[in-house]
Hints:
By secondary structure, this protein is mostly beta strands. The protein has strands at residues 2-8, 14-15, 20-29, 34-46, 52-62, 66-74, 82-83, 87-97, 103-110, 117-118.
Amino acid sequence: MGELRIELAGGRSWARPGAVLSGTVRWELDEPPGRLELRLLWYTEGRGSRDVGVVRREGFEAPESSGKLSFRLSVPPGPYSFEGRIVTLRWLVEAEAQRSGLVAQESLVVAPTPVPVDIKTAPGETG
């Protein structure tokens, strides 16, 4: 099957809205993947149906069974990562090797600070 990995520059797991996110995708597969797709997406968890929004998608030809490529993705102004009582919104950088279907994911916080916005407590409430 092989290995597919995403490494975010500086080991970061946080990006400010509007920033440029950079990193590397590395792969070691049994056969050339043909094409690699890189996605920046958000998704919700919690009650109700799961929503997913792919905000950036880039494709790369990858004719060798192993290699690496660098990427730079512009982070949109939102939505922010948040933790709520009913719904949570998370971000991912995801890479997929076309022929094998192998997928790698790296979690990311998109917010003004390195932690998701906490909306579990309503204004005026305590903990």
